[in-house]
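User: Could you go from structure to sequence for me? I need the amino acid at each position, not a summary. Structure tokens:
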């Protein structure tokens, strides 16, 4: 069920001297949480704490996060996620990007769509990259937002959604995959946006900045990608943190 909301006064947030930041992301957001925390401190004068183990985890999927939010924390075998519910309940700032990978019977996507572009597989296999493919992923993202809002229990919360940049566009061009993979990347990021829009959560498009508004620019050439060709450099991490700051610090009403 979608929950519509409006931005409202942040008086109770302003009264706090310390804000907790929970940054939930796969490796595409590596290093951004600390830089965003620094930005918040600079912009607001708050002390920002990143609690727990931190939730930047390579390959982190929506299914994995949703399971951690819907399970008894003590029953979780992954120690990293045992404090997630408690950390979210206390977090004034929450940022989310998780990928769609996982068991298709549970709403995950395995070996289809954008995953083939990431693996640079044959472009002829991309005919299955449609928004319909990502509808179960959208529902999983919505369920995550519902759990977050329930844990926050009406407290003002700054929630932001982030999408996914394409670091492989030059490789796609070499393999004559650019048109199809760009379309697939756009479809995927549309899915991320739709889930956020359902809860009036501000959406920060890293894709539009890293790859340009036409999504045809190589972020490697801008210095945003590290030597491994896929993950963000320190410069790229700062760009994402700055985009989050530019979105402001107004909470979203549950």
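Assistant: Here is the amino acid at each position, in order:
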């Amino acid at each position: 069920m979608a929950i519509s909301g409006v931005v409202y006064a942040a008086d109770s947030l302003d009264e706090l001297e310390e804000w907790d930041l929970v940054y939930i992301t796969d490796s595409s957001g590596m290093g951004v949480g600390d830089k965003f925390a620094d930005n918040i401190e600079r912009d607001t004068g708050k002390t920002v704490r990143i609690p727990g183990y931190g939730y930047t985890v390579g390959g982190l999927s929506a299914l994995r996060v949703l399971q951690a939010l819907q399970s008894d924390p003590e029953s979780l075998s992954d120690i990293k996620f045992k404090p997630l519910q408690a950390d979210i309940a206390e977090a004034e700032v929450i940022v989310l990007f998780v990928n769609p990978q996982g068991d298709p019977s549970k709403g995950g996507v395995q070996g289809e769509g954008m995953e083939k572009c990431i693996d640079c597989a044959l472009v002829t296999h991309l005919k299955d990259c449609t928004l319909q493919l990502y509808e179960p992923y959208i529902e999983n993202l919505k369920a995550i937002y519902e759990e977050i809002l329930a844990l926050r229990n009406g407290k003002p919360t700054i929630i932001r959604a982030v999408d996914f940049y394409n670091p492989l566009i030059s490789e796609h061009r070499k393999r004559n995959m650019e048109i199809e993979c760009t379309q697939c990347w756009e479809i995927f990021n549309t899915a991320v946006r739709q889930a956020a829009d359902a809860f009036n959560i501000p959406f920060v498009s890293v894709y539009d900045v890293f790859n340009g508004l036409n999504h045809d620019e190589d972020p490697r050439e801008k210095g945003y990608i590290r030597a491994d060709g896929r993950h963000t450099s320190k410069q790229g991490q700062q760009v994402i943190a700055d985009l989050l700051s530019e979105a402001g610090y107004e909470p979203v009403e549950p």
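One structural detail worth keeping in mind: The mean pLDDT is 90.
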